[in-house]
Amino acid sequence: MKQQVWILFFLAVPLCSSVPVYNAEVNGDVTLSPVGISSVRSVVWKFGNNKVAEFDPSFSKEVKIFGNYQGRTTLDKETGKITISKLSLKDNGTFSVEVDSVLTSGWYRLEVFEAVKTVEITRDDTDKKLCKLLCKAENALNLEWSASHSENFNSTGSHLTVRKSDLSHSYTCNASNPVSRMTTTVKAKDICQDPIDWGPIVGGILGVLAVIGAGAAGGVLLYQSRADAQNDESKKDC
Description:
The protein is of the alpha+beta class. The protein has helices at residues 2-12, 188-192, 198-237, and strands at residues 21-25, 30-32, 43-47, 50-55, 64-65, 73-75, 82-84, 93-99, 102-113, 117-123, 130-138, 142-147, 150-156, 159-163, 170-177, 180-187. It folds into 2 domains: 2-113, Sandwich (Immunoglobulin-like); 117-192, Sandwich (Immunoglobulin-like). The chain has 3 helices and 16 strands. The strands form 4 sheets. It has a 6-stranded mixed beta sheet with strand order 1-9-8-3-4-5, with no helix packed on it. Strands 13-12-15-16 form a 4-stranded antiparallel beta sheet. It is elongated. It comes from Clupea harengus. Residues 1-18 form the signal peptide. The chain crosses the membrane at residues 198-223.
C-alpha cells in the first residue's frame, strides 16, 4: 500500500524540467491551449487543485468560471483554450487541464512580472583613478552594460568600472526581465569628473580683490595727501 501511494504521488506532480513556462506582465493576459488536441467534448482547467474553468455538455451547455477568475477568464468550448486577463502576481503557479475526463500531459507554469521602470545610473565610489557606475532599476532581473565606443563591449551586473581615460564615452544600462526592458544612457564625464574644489579658487580671488582693494585705498590716501599738501602751499602763497 505504501508503494502505491508513492506511485500516485509521482503521477500527480509534474516534473519541473518538462513544464513549459509562460511569462506575462501584470495586468496583461495569457492564453493556454491543451497540447496536441484540436477539439474537445469536455474540459477542466485547474490552478493547483482548484478549478479555474470547466465545460461539460453532459451537465451544462454553459462554461463555468470559478473563484477570482470570474470576469477575467474565457474558455473556448471547441478547442479547450483558456484566456486569463488582468493578471496579478497571485496568478503565479502551475495550471493543468483535463480533456474528456483525462488528465493530459499538458502542465503549464505561469510566471507574472511587473514591468521594469525607473532605471538610474549614479556614481558609487570616491577613487581618483577609476570611476564606478551603479545602475538601479525597479523590477529588473538582469542588468547589462553597453558602451558608445565599442559594439563588442559587454558587461553584466549592477556595477561598471570606468577608467578616467574613458570618460569621453557614453555608457548604457539595459535593465530587463522576461516581459519588459528599459534603458538609460549617461556620459561618463558628466558623472565621473571630480567636482571643482572652489575653496582655493575663491580664496585666490578674494586675495586678489583684497590686494586690489588695498592698492586702491592706498591710492586714494596718496591722492588725498597730495591734495592737502597743495592746499597748504596755496594758503602760504596767499
